Amino acid sequence: MSNNYQTLYDSAIKKIPYDLISDQAYEILEKAKVHKVYDGVLYIIVASAFEKTIINGNFINIISKYLSEEFKKENIVNFQFIVENEKVLINSNFLVKETVIKNRFNFSDEIMRYNFNNLVISDFNRKAVKAIESLLSTNYENSSMCNPLFLFGKVGIGKTHIVAAAGNQFANSNPNLKIYYYEGQDFFRKFCSASAKGTSHVEEFKKEIASANLLIFEDIQNIQSRDSAAELFFNIFNDIKLNGGKIILTSDRTPNELNGFHDRIISRLASGLQCKISQPDKNEAIKIINNWFEFKKKYQITDEAKEYIAEGFHTDIRQMIGNLKQICFWADNDLNENLVITKDFIIECSVENDIPSNIIVKQQLKPEQVIEIIAKELNLKVDLIKSTTRKNSIVWARDIVCYVLKNKLNLTLTEIGKLLSGREHTTISHSVNKVEKILADKNSQEALQINLIIDKF
């Protein structure tokens, strides 16, 4: 029977997704041996107390989830990692059962993976981390000053990592408290689902979240102008605060820029501490890359390659991590077992796989490529953008091209004019100014669409 349990255990470990736990944790789990089942608990032996600490510290909830799925037919749902000298304590009842308490709600596997051990703390996010520490401290005065904590900044700069790490740390330190995680769109979908079933279901949904000791609510801008959902959130917010709970909010803008909310909601959002997370610079991006590869020890990468990646992506950590995964995929499928990831390797793979990517940094992006990318994005022909036609949709695309060439490639107005059928520099200046005025109203539909295009550069 124990051999069968070992087979099930090995199968469960192989099913844990590659990026949910560290390479070090994988190595520990692969070497671990099933000892026995006693009183409904499966005991698994690891080599040392240090290894036991690593598994129980950051990854036990993820591991237990996959073990539970594999062992459900055996009616085993509790798992405990032990060291060799603890075996004799099992039958005597001197070994305390370490059951995994479910105190994290609506946490995906990805969210549960984040912790402060794999977070690079630098100037761009240090204030936010300090604010988190104050909010979650047991010192009432420090905590109340930061409650609610409103973190804001551009997309892709690591807000999710910080707040998820905070939630996981708080959950590990307070196993009897409840932590809820919601993203704005997810909250709205579940609110709509509850509404379709009737008032009692909405009330049940509200009571469930309002029972949180810590609520993490990301991208709150996604429920603005959705009055019923925003009203429900307002009531949940008040209940949590009234019951002494803590709240962390994130957005891509400040509370005062959330124009789709009633004033009383904005007042609540701004009633604690507001903290901006900035974009990392190139050197900070290199630190993040180094940290990422620290958990992916099987890859070798040159400093030049790291600088190349950082140059192209330092303003968007999320996109940078996505490209690191892409690069590692290419490396995994290369026939050279002793491959070292170089700048040339990255460029060659990008071209071969026809993957448009910011990894071709601004300095290497050609003006013609900018026009082609914008034309493709707007489903237009390049020749039309360069033509003299005054059709509104073409003029709008041409204005965006002028803005990007001026602000992203630093071309002069005269140089841009030559690219666009010899237009006068005053005409180009007018186009750039038009786009700047649109972007000044951050919440307008036009500004949002233009920003989606600009973000590609």
From TrEMBL:
Example of a GO cellular component annotation carried by this entry: plasma membrane
Cited InterPro entries: Chromosome_initiator_DnaA-like, Chromosome_initiator_DnaA_CS, DnaA_C, DnaA_dom, P-loop_NTPase, Trp_repressor/repl_initiator
Residue ranges annotated for the Chromosomal replication initiator DnaA C-terminal domain, each copy included: 366-435
Membrane-spanning ranges: none
PANTHER family: CHROMOSOMAL REPLICATION INITIATOR PROTEIN DNAA
Taxonomic source organism: Ureaplasma urealyticum
Chain's role: Plays an essential role in the initiation and regulation of chromosomal replication. ATP-DnaA binds to the origin of replication (oriC) to initiate formation of the DNA replication initiation complex once per cell cycle. Binds the DnaA box (a 9 base pair repeat at the origin) and separates the double-stranded (ds)DNA. Forms a right-handed helical filament on oriC DNA; dsDNA binds to the exterior of the filament while single-stranded (ss)DNA is stabiized in the filament's interior.
Keywords: ATP-binding, Cytoplasm, DNA replication, DNA-binding, Lipid-binding, Nucleotide-binding
GO annotation, biological process: DNA replication initiation; regulation of DNA replication
Domain of life: Bacteria
Designated name of the protein: Chromosomal replication initiator protein DnaA
Similarity field: Belongs to the DnaA family.
Pfam families: Bac_DnaA, Bac_DnaA_C
GO terms assigned for molecular function: ATP binding; DNA replication origin binding; lipid binding
